[in-house]
Specification:
Layout: H1 5-16, H2 22-35, H3 43-57, E1 61-65, H4 71-77, E2 85-90, H5 93-106, E3 112-116, H6 119-122, H7 126-130, E4 135-140, H8 147-156, E5 160-168, H9 171-175, H10 177-185, E6 189-197, E7 204-212
Parallel strand pairs: 1-2, 1-4, 2-3, 4-5
Antiparallel strand pairs: 5-7, 6-7
Helix pairs in contact: 1-2, 1-5, 2-4, 2-5, 3-4
The chain binds ligand 7JV and magnesium ion.
Magnesium ion binds at residues 40, 42, 141, 169-170.
Length: 214
């Protein structure tokens, strides 16, 4: 039977990356996607912007919406302080199965909690089910139409505090215009656009960083 693209991406990690070395996992995926098959990881260019936001924030609790194959999950978790936690939600079971193995190859299982299900279902359960008090960083990289409703859900569930950061991928391509309008107009956010390119291409894309003001 035919393999899927995520399965081939995992194969590239297992072939070319060193077990327990997150940076080699990131590099193996970027090489695979640049030279073999494009895949919708945040990628190396936007990944550097992600790294700088994470490093500057030094977050204790991170929520990632949209795991896919675990590229950004590994990228973020490799930068977290010792007792910090990253919870990542993935709706697609096939993606979740691959991401779990990529995370294991990187040796980051202890920092990452991978949950299979929808953000709408799991955001309201963050506190009771994961013992999360507040989120320091939310990396939004799931489905563009869910960015705005999920942001409002995070607010309504009391998961954002003064200084919490929302970092959204693909605000230009595929684009999330309603989300951009909301965070840029709302007096409750200080928003900033980091111009970049769609992963592994020359097309414009970027990350929007929005600090919740409380
Ligand atoms: C399935 O579309 C793939 C695609 C095709 C053309 C342009 C952009 C994208 C794209 C790029 C991304 O970084 C993405 N990140 C998260 N969820 C996405 O659906 C997503 C889509
Ligand atoms: Mg993306």
């Amino acid at each position: 039977t035919q393999s899927t693209r995520p399965q081939r991406l995992l194969g590239a990690v297992q072939k070319n990356a060193t077990r327990g070395d997150p940076r080699s996992v990131v590099k193996a995926i970027d090489e695979f996607c640049r030279h073999k098959e494009w895949a919708m990881n945040v990628g190396d260019e936007k990944g550097c912007i992600l790294d700088s936001v994470v490093s500057e924030l030094n977050p204790a609790t991170v929520l990632e919406l949209g795991t896919y194959c675990g590229y950004s999950t590994v990228r973020i978790a490799s930068l977290l302080p010792p007792h910090a936690k990253l919870i990542t939600l993935e709706f697609n079971p096939d993606y979740a199965k691959i991401a779990c193995q990529v995370i294991a190859w990187a040796g980051l299982e202890d920092k990452i909690q991978l949950v299979e299900g929808s953000s709408a279902e799991w955001i309201p359960k963050m506190k009771e089910h994961f013992g999360v008090k507040m989120l320091d960083l939310v990396f939004m990289d799931h489905w563009k139409d869910d960015y705005l409703p999920d942001t409002k859900l995070l607010e309504d569930c009391g998961l954002l505090r003064k200084g919490s950061v929302l970092l959204a991928d693909n605000v230009i391509c595929p684009g999330s215009p309603d989300y951009l309008k909301y965070v840029r107009r709302s007096p409750r956010y200080k928003s900033q656009y980091f111009r970049s390119h769609l992963e592994y291409t020359k097309a414009e894309d970027g990350l929007e960083k929005s600090v919740f003001l409380g």
